[in-house]
Amino acid sequence: MNRAEPPRSPGLLHPRPSAPPLTQLPAWQALVDHHRMMGSRHLRQFFADDPQRGERLQVEAAGLYFDFSKNRVTDETLALLVDLAEHCGLRERRDAMFRGDPINATEKRAVLHTALRAPADERIVVDGVNVVPEVHAVLDRMADFAERIRSGEWRGHTGKPIRNVINIGIGGSDLGPVMDCEALHPYSKIGLHLGFVSNIDPSDLVEATRGLDAAETLFIICSKSFRTFDTLTNAHAARAWSLAQLGDERAIASHFVAVSTNAEAVAAFGIDAAHMFALWDWVGGRYSMDSAIGLISMVAVGPEHFRAMLSGFRAMDEHFHRTPLARNMPVLLGLLAIWNNNFLGAETLAVLPYDHYLKRFPAYLQQLTMESNGKHVTATGQAVSTSTSPIVWGEPGTNGQHSFFQLLHQGTRLVACDFIGFSHSQNPQAGQHDLLMANLFAQSEALAFGKTAQALMAEGVDEAQVAQRVCEGNRPSNTLLAERLTPYTLGALVALYEHSVFTQGVIWNIDSFDQWGVELGKVLAQRIVTELADNSHGPLTHDSSTNTLMRRYQRQRKE
Ligand code: F6P
Asked: How far is the CA of 228 from the centre of ligand 1 (A)?
């Protein structure tokens, strides 16, 4: 960003070009030695040694309070992790991202989701063009459209106001909007029905449109590329559904709008340029919920709340950009993830929101984290020397407690956990929020401290059952606490994870912004769909398993 621009360091615009493997860096080796020295030191000991630990190991930013004291780290661990980040060029890479340098090396693109929430007077230049005015122009058009739908001014083909808005998109063109609309449901316009169709399985669209009046239904076709097979198939099916009820091609104009970078394909689908909302190739799909991809959210919660969400994103961006690494929330979250994953061996991360409105947050983070950092080579093509993205999963509390928490407490695998909670409920009910939050606090406490055999015996537990009842504890977790789940807080929370994922990607020296791995399956599916349609049953040239499955499917399909 063009304020006090730090000097460019060309060697670091691209991931470390000719760096030795990560695990050979002295800063990494220092952590290996430190880990060995720490042995299996228990969280009980960490807290006993430092009674102020819970007050010290925290940072606060953008309305979020981040307690990381229940991690198996000392001040020295943290200092060594920050040192590693310095050696990996995190500050330079971060500044290059904010500046708009093409840090997505394999796709030769800038990575500028941070420009989506930049104030109007900021200058961020990509290929000689300041992109901020374009961003604000699109936001203004979105706001105008959202208000017209919300007020009933926008009429459908038969003159009825729009009561149902259905987003058709997949991946980043679905998960962000769904999560956002769920999270901010209490801010949503009453009487407006929202639907989401992502799966190419026709049941998704059939269920989303069941019983709806096409004259009151508007579809947002959301696809950055406007080439995604799943989305285009569903968009054509939605078009057919609308036309079957409305019986007039001209109806498309008032019932379909698009969000895309691909104006040509949008026009070819039959959507007017005036009804297309743009985004840019420097916005990655999984980083796009605050672009026009979030149009359905803006319609739902209104432009003011949407802008409040952007301010939350922005506040976290500022914190990430300006705060020293050792007190920087996304940096710490990312570095602790590296520690838990690469040093303690936690292969998965459980995301546990204690707020029912965040029930889609784990699914959102799955794409953000795993599509970004599920990589096996560095950005310069060498095999990585350590494991990369953790597997992200989770469910809201307290549901998860009655399902998989048993494994978290007593299973043989170490699972890192992120607890997320709020001091106020969106629906205060006499004391019930305290019950919810008591569970959050209790679970993180139980994971950290467990219950010893001595404590069980002192309670008079039958000796024969002591082994079964022991919880060894020493299981790391983070806790994020905010006042309430507002649009602002949600923006800050998403930006926190975006920058944490970035931090981890920089340490591993991978390109967190491409996704070549998803291409192979797409290409194969295209070939197979042609073969399935060919009823002449010509020879198949797949492996014997795939050939047999396809033949069986073809046979059963006919029966
Ligand atoms: O799954 C691959 C992917 O390219 C994601 O990165 C993206 O979010 C999704 O497909 C949808 O892409 P589009 O918005 O171009 O339809």
From this structure: 7
One DSSP character per residue, 189-236 reads PTT-EEEEE--SSHHHHHHHHTT--GGGEEEEEE-SSS--HHHHHHHH
Q: Is 522 a catalytic residue?
A: yes
For 171-207, the pLDDT digits (tens) are: 999 999 999 999 999 999 999 999 999 999 999 999 9
Only one residue has tokens 């029966």, namely 559
Specify the pLDDT at position 17. Answer: 61
371 is catalytic: yes
Q: In angstroms, rounded to a whole number, what is the distance separating the alpha carbons of residues 183 and 361?
A: 8
Instruction: Fill in the amino acid letter for 538.
Output: G
Compute the distance between CA of residue 223 and CA of residue 221 in angstroms, rounded to an integer. Answer: 6
Name which of 328, 297, 263 is nearest 189 in CA terms: 297
- Compute the radius of gyration of the chain from its Cα atoms: 25
Predicted confidence band of residue 430 (pLDDT cuts 50, 70, 90): confident
Catalytic annotation on 402?
yes
* Ligand 1 midpoint to CA 511 (Å): 16
- From 402, 424, 483, 519, the catalytic residue: 402
Q: Which of the following is catalytic: 376, 424, 522, 537?
A: 522
Contact 357, 427 (CB under 8 A): no
Is ipTM over 0.90? yes
Closest residue by Cα to atom 3, ligand 1, is 171
Please state whether the predicted TM-score (pTM) of the whole model is above 0.90.
yes
Instruction: Check pocket membership of 515 for ligand 1, CB cut-off 6 A.
Output: yes
